[in-house]
């Protein structure tokens, strides 16, 4: 990292470079992303902080700590979704797809890979357009949909070519060849690797170590063991120059090299390569590769005629294989638990957030929700009407019947308001402002139409059969109405002020009525400031 990046634009560019690297060292990239997060926090830029943390999650996954990556991904995805950041959402789903690939969940891997492509738009980088589609092809191959995978690989080849991204084109073809090889389609895999090598030659590019490993594995299947050894030795050489991708990369290359050397009859060279792969597996905790090292060791003993030793190593292989599957199941369980706990915490937070915006008595939205939602509706909705609804003579209900009956009346009025509003304004909402006072927001409904609907709501309340609850005491409401066209300035305060004055007019005109429009008469005071107005 060259110097301290203090400017947000410079830091964003540095993050893009890190995000769009095709070949990297996971551990040093994690350290770089951590340093970028500190700088983003110093700048107070939430988006840059989130991007840096997503890079960290990606590197954690590539270093093998899938559970830690899974714990981080929920919060990062939520931030991106809440801020409608499509690029960040796309990148998040790509990491999520890889997490599920590590878990062996091909269906979820594919689902997130699809979303990682669907979210791409004009603001996505050229790298994203190519690589996200490549990973979708990989996921399709993992799920066994080879025809669909081939179609995606071919589309992505064309895109990488059109964008003039030869390095990414080599990455696409490498993954394509590996997927064909893994599916047992060795002739197809060979054809793709031939194309891969031709393009590298045309552009004067070196194949990265992973590409050489893929070609080497295919050459072994084709019986070209000498060529495979040369390719794998070159993969190891280039890896040791510092160009590597994942923590298990060198161990994999050494293992493939040992296989090529065994088939050549060069058992001493094969043993040396295998010993080095084993050392890496032990030092880095690479259980999956270590199991295959044991398997190759048994094959190597058998190739030398050491059948007793081969049998002994086979027993080690089966024990390691069983232990690996047990540890994999435990790791998967830990990762799924981490994902569950994070999701559970997110859902719990959402539940408390929802509770904080609900009136506990009526279940309606409360004043906090109103203050959060109404300003946005004022800005975005050209036609908006609000109405303040207040129960008439509600103090009599509490004093003569009891506060419990008063609560039951409020609950029933709330139900009527919600039901009636949903019928006329499905996108609107009802909120309890406090006491016996409610607010209705009716987006897209204005003028006489709004007045007619609100009068219908008034009638629905007064005509409800209250006899069983209030024993003959009538329940009516007064309604003060205001539309955006009634205000001099489009704001929540202006709307509520006019609705409040109209409610005052309704109360002093005899109650049980709806009053709308802009009243400039100074005698029309605020309802809240009118003594004994209820």
TrEMBL record:
Lineage here is:
Bacteria, Bacillati, Actinomycetota, Actinomycetes, Micromonosporales
- Name the domain of life this protein comes from: Bacteria
Organism equals Winogradskya humida
The name of this protein is GGDEF domain-containing protein
> Where do the GGDEF domain residues begin and end?
382-519
InterPro entries under this entry?
A: Diguanylate_Cyclase, GGDEF_dom, Nucleotide_cyclase, Rev_trsase/Diguanyl_cyclase, TPR-like_helical_dom_sf
A Pfam family it matches = GGDEF
């Amino acid at each position: 990292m060259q110097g301290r990046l203090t400017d947000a634009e410079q830091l964003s560019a540095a993050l893009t470079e890190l995000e769009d690297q095709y070949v990297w060292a996971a551990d040093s990239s994690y350290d770089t992303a951590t340093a970028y997060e500190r700088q983003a926090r110093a700048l107070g830029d939430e988006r840059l902080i989130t991007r840096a943390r997503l890079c960290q999650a990606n590197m954690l996954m590539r270093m093998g700590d899938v559970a830690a990556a899974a714990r981080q991904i929920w919060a990062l995805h939520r931030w991106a979704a809440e801020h409608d950041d499509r690029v960040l959402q796309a990148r998040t789903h790509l990491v999520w797809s890889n997490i599920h690939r590590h878990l062996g969940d091909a269906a979820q891997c594919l689902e997130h890979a699809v979303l990682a492509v669907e979210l791409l738009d004009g603001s996505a980088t050229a790298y994203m357009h190519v690589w996200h589609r490549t990973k979708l092809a990989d996921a399709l191959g993992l799920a066994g949909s080879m025809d669909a995978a081939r179609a995606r690989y071919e589309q992505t080849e064309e895109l990488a070519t059109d964008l003039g991204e030869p390095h990414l084109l080599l990455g696409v073809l490498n993954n394509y060849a590996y997927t064909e090889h893994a599916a047992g389609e060795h002739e197809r895999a060979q054809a793709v690797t031939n194309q891969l090598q031709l393009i590298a030659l045309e552009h004067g590019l070196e194949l990265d170590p992973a590409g050489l490993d893929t070609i080497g594995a295919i050459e072994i299947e084709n019986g070209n063991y000498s060529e495979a050894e040369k390719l794998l030795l070159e993969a190891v050489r280039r890896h040791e120059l510092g160009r590597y991708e994942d923590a298990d990369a060198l161990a994999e290359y050494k293992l493939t090299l040992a296989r090529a050397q065994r088939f050549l009859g060069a058992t001493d060279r094969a043993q040396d390569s295998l010993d080095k792969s084993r050392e890496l597996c032990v030092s880095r905790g690479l259980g999956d590769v270590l199991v295959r090292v044991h398997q190759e060791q048994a094959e190597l003993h058998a190739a030398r005629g050491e059948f007793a030793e081969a049998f002994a190593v086979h027993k080690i292989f089966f024990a390691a294989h069983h232990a690996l599957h047990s540890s994999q199941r435990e790791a998967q369980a830990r990762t799924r638990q981490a994902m569950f706990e994070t999701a559970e915490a997110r859902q719990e937070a959402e539940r408390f957030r929802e509770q904080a915006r609900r009136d506990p008595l009526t279940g309606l939205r409360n004043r906090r929700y109103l203050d959060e939602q109404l300003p946005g509706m004022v800005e975005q909705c050209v036609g908006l009407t609000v109405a303040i609804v207040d129960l008439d003579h509600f103090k009599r209900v509490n004093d003569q019947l009891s506060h419990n009956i008063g609560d039951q009346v409020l609950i029933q009025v709330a139900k009527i308001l919600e039901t009636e509003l949903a019928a006329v304004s499905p996108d609107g909402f009802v909120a309890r402002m406090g006491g016996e006072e409610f607010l209705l927001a009716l987006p897209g409904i204005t003028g006489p139409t709004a007045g007619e609907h609100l009068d219908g709501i008034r009638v629905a309340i007064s005509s409800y059969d209250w006899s069983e609850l209030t024993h003959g005491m009538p329940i009516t409401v007064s309604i003060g109405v205001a539309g955006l066209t009634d205000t001099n300035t489009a704001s929540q305060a202006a709307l509520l002020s006019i609705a409040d004055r109209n409610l005052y007019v309704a109360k002093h005109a005899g109650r049980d009525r709806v009053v709308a429009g802009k009243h400039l008469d100074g005698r029309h005071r605020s309802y809240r400031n009118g003594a004994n107005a209820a």
